[in-house]
Known about the structure:
Elements: H1 13-27, E1 33-39, E2 42-48, H2 50-56, H3 58-65, E3 76-80, H4 84-96, H5 106-115, H6 119-155, H7 168-172, H8 182-191
Parallel strand pairs: 1-3
Antiparallel strand pairs: 1-2
Helix pairs in contact: 2-3, 4-5, 5-6
Amino acid sequence: MESAPVLLESKSSPINLLNEMHQLRLLGHLCDVTVSVEYQGVRAEFAAHKAVLAATSKFFKEVFLNEKAVDGPRSNVFLNEVQVADFASFLEFVYTARVEVEEDRVQRMLEIAEKLKCLDLSETCFQLKKQMLESVLLELQNFSESQNSEEESAAHPNVLPEPRAVVGAERDLPDSPATPLEVPAAKSKEKM
């Protein structure tokens, strides 16, 4: 009698695999490609694994799969117009599925994700930019509402000012602070 098949699935295996690949890269073990990046005269080289780069970036996948057999496997890839800090953050993201960057670098990370065709990083940057925009809009809405409430309280004070008696000389001065209620009363006195 055959038993029913069961599913053996590890929740920690993907995380463990990423962590192990990241440690191998940091130690320089089993790396089979060097990526050289240069931006405005600043240049750096990064050791990495083709399989990880190809699995996370369509750009690298195309580069590695289109290698000519005559040239042999490519061990160097050159990227110009990519900042060193941005590529380092890109590598950290593809090896760990997370990276911490300054808010003003999120747009640059989105640009490198699009250049290297890394959908996971693009989506992550897009979601973060959306959250940042929603946060700014919420702050603007709160500010606008507080301004409106301040204007309303200024326009409709709870205590009305005491009416002033208009004296003859005051009435003729153009700068006298007469309220609209005082002007008709003054005019009606003049007509009498």
